[in-house]
Amino acid sequence: MTYQPIIGIEIHVQLKTASKMFCGCKNYPFGAKKPNFYTCPVCLGLPGALPVPNKKAIEWTIALGLALKCQINSLSKFDRKHYFYPDLPKGYQISQYDSPFCFNGKVTTSQGEVSIRRIHLEEDTGKLIHASVNGKKVTLIDFNRSGVPLIEIVSEPQIHSPAQAKECAKKIFQIIRYLNLSDADMEKGQLRLEANVSLRPKNRQDLPNYKVELKNINSFRFLEKAIETEIKRQTEILLQGKTPVQETRGYNAEKNLTYPQRSKEEAADYRYFPEPDIPPIRISSQWLESIKNSLPLDYETLLASWEKSYRVEKHLVSLLFDTHHQAAWLEKLFQKAKRLGIEVRRLVNFLANKKIKVNLFAHEEPQKILDLFHEQTQTISIEVEELERAIDQVIKHNPQAVADFRKGKKNVLNFLLGQTLKLLGKKVDPKQIIKLINEKIS
Amino acid sequence: MGLRLTLKKAIELLDNKEISLKEIYQDLFEKYSQENNQYNIYLSVNKNSFSEAQTKKDKPLRGLPIAVKDNILTLGLPATASSNILRNYWPQYEATVTKRIKEAGGVVFGKTNLDAWAHGSSTETSDFGPTKNPRNPQYSPGGSSGGSAAAVAADMAIASLGTETAGSIRQPAAWCGVVGLKPTYGRVSRYGIIAMGSSLDCPGPITKTVEDSAILLQLIAGKDNFDATTSSHPVPDYQKNLKKGVKNFKIGICYIDHPQLSQTLAAKATLKAGKIFECLGAEVEIIKTSTQLQKNRILTHEYAISVYTIVQRAEVSSNLARYDGIRYGQSREFFGHEAKNRIILGTFILSKGYAEKYYLLAQKVRRLYVENFKQLFSKYDLLISPASPSFALPLGSSANNPMFGELQDMLVEPSSLAGICGLSIPMFLDEKTNLYLGLNIMGNYFQEEKILQAGWVFEQTTDWNSWKN
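The joint structure predicted for all components is written out below.
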């Protein structure tokens, strides 16, 4: 019996808005001088504190939705999701239940289209720190992260291979970075990946009666590997005629295996209900229009247009930038290069292969990059007499090499070329030098 | 006998230098030390209030003392919500209402007793003992803002702030023979008030006169950037039209045809109030109660009890989740019986499979009340009803009766669910027991001006107010 993997992914991303989701606190958990530095009654969940939603965070969520070809709910709302955990100071998380800002989007991968079920906005929790104070084991809570805007992107279970899961997640990541909504640094937990994996017999069309949620995945590569190893594990169980347990499993990258974390046979009851402290949010067509207008050129469209007008290779040029601000900068660079008759394709290859050492976006003016490129890649022409003088001198000082060449050691030419360039101290076309040396010593 | 000052009078006397702040505070502290033990009104008192007052002489409230319900967070005093869970809780920030009062020259004199977490209508569920009605200490002051109403009635405060979820300002005001104003939901900020039923909670003034309510409302009303449910609807000058009377107002009398109510003194007094308004030039008629949503009929309050119970319990169970035993120093065992009851019922209501059946259905029925009031206010300027079906009940009569609060509040729940404004003013005094009945004057959304106008002229025309000149 062969099985087809049924995979869905969930991505959590912290938005890098200036302030937190429901209060005016600085949204900068990694830059805080000390724990609980950027906190207030709202993100500490103190009695009487009330949430006021961050308009920018809502606009960014909708912007991402539009970039992922989602439909936007004209009337949306926040809901309370209840569960008990010490890092959740109100006893509930403000999230979105049945009317997320965005739904029905899609991501195109090389192995087919993947639908995006929904994108919603919520608040991040605090962070538990397990420490030892005066020899006593304690758990401390840091609320700097509490209330940081967090978006959750959920795909439909339409992914059928580990590689496709990786590609899909990476595409979403690229778009988030391109829109400059988050730094999406996985090491800092700004982007968190989860996958739901199950297997079904090749000839079936319905969804399997179980699914396994994979957590603790902190890179795209590990997403692929975790799913691979989970598929292997599930296949073995299925081949024994059993059904894998519905549960949450962690991924151990060192051992490349998944391990059980929490059984999920019974679904948790979060007792969702509409957040009474925040009135429903109407997304008017004007508001939606203004968000649309603020969007940069679509990522894929941009790459396609560059491919067309500059003949650059998409995968190479995409290595050069993350955000649309950087893309706009590159566009200026490319235009200028084109005007100066520089081949943009070559420039991109050079930059992508890091053949020249330049700090791309540090310079104000693309001109400086072009100067550097020119300086480091272009040869200069010099008077033939000057060149001949230098070659003569090199021949004179290296009689042994000349003798070796005459005995048939052709690669000595490169040595002589190097010596000549060194003597000249200028970047002269090597072909011209080799031709001259050849003439002189053959 | 004490000074028996209203806000208005105190400001006048201070401005004419006929009295000093020192005399006012001395009088209050004297009264406090003589009588607080007897009535159990204040849970904490601000010892620095007089020195704070002296820095505020030039501001609108002239440094005058205001009593504040203990579920409102003020800096410098504990905020317990009358619950053992918060018995040692000192707030780290100031509620918007008291911030505005303080900025306007008011001083928080002390924090008043309430039913624990504002769960109740008698102040008897307070973990710190019941408050007694200063009009007759054998009786309950009502609740949950019983302490704030009693403080005013006992002249232990010039004016006070309470909060209402359904009746918690108007019913104790009625039982204590004072004035209580429940503003439109969203008119006054809830920021810094320990949440009970978040979609219903509304802070408001409890005062000796209607004019004092207008003065306090003026200071606390308006958009607050810390409360997303506050309205940016403009705040009028509440004193401007205060004395213009009710001439040509169309007033409807509600609920008195209900079989359980029609023979009560409360119903009769309400009819009489209607007559008075008629004499003052208003057009008054009785509105029939209907079990269906019908034009020019008022929807029976009986559904409101179920709807209110479901919505409020659900929100309570959510709002109390933060008192998880990790913070605030007391474990969950310290929750009183009533709070536990409500948490359990609310948790059940929101559980999977039941939320649709109860919570979402309740919200739909709630819309019917909104529609009903909208329609009625297209015809009537004001609606009146008793604020409570009875006089204050004897202390102890709410024990072992979890539905006690709801029965008492049944007349105010429809308007609370709809979120419209209401004012309770004294409309009858029983000389034998020295207890009062209150008239509930309800107005459309953001029509506080109109209910104050009607309240003022009623107060002036009748003899029920204890502080009239």
